[in-house]
Amino acid sequence: MEALVMKHETKEETFADMAREHHRELLVYARALTRETHQSRDIVQDSLVTAWENQERFDVTRDFGSWLRGIIRNKWRETMRRNNKQIAIEDEVLESMEAEMLTWQELRQDGGPGVFVKLEACIGKLPEALLGAVRSFYYEGCSTEETAEKLEVAGATVRKRLERSREALRQCLENK
Q: By the 8 A CB rule, do 143 and 39 touch?
């Protein structure tokens, strides 16, 4: 009986460790999908519960973070359908986001928690036009439209600035 309890505790601890390891990037990913801090936190929490309940379905040969992001995508789609909202992100964009998340995950593993310190240094090197878009969209949680209005530019300009920012940050981190 004690062996069963030990095995259960180990299973809980292992899951908790893995969830903790991926939590920050899961929040970032959910935030990119929902554009809302509160909703992204709810989706991540629901996804972790679902992952816990279905962990026997997890293929240990796959990446745990990718599996969790798949659950988050499904929860997000479910939320959009339930609220009769049209899904504004196409499959190609979701695939691109997944590829970017894998890159960030590799950087985090290679750089440890220091990758976020490096990221802040790289953000500080962005030109003012790109930095303004990044601050408004990612730090202040403004939508693309709100950011465009705040910066007095078109929405397409904001999206392009964010795209250029992500690319500049990726290159900066790869060169550090």
A: no
